[in-house]
Amino acid sequence: MFTLLSGLYDLATAREEVRLLIIGLDAAGKTTLLNALTQSSASASMPATRPTVGLNVGRLDVGGCSVMLWDLGGASGLRTIWER
Q1: Which of 1, 48, 56, 58 satisfies CB 3.0 to 4.6 Å to 71 for a cystine?
Q2: Does the pLDDT of residue 45 top 80, yes or no?
Q3: CATH classification for the domain delimited by 15-83, as one of 3.30.1360.70, 3.40.50.300, 3.40.367.20, 3.20.20.70
Q4: pTM above 0.85, yes or no
Q5: Where are the alpha helices (DSSP H) in the chain?
């Protein structure tokens, strides 16, 4: 019975989740975009970004929707994982 009620509660309070993949060539501004979107507006200055090794993940809440942002590195050695 608890499982049924828990499932109904999860269904009633579920929020839509969107997954967004950011890919592009190295030094194109992908990580800067990710940081700008996920930083709070109260923060006056953004820290310097370093080249991404692997990936960066961020989450953003827009209205009733949750957006998961994935930033894949753009160096030539990392482009092989773009297809996967």
Answers
A1: 56
A2: no
A3: 3.40.50.300
A4: no
A5: 2-13, 30-38
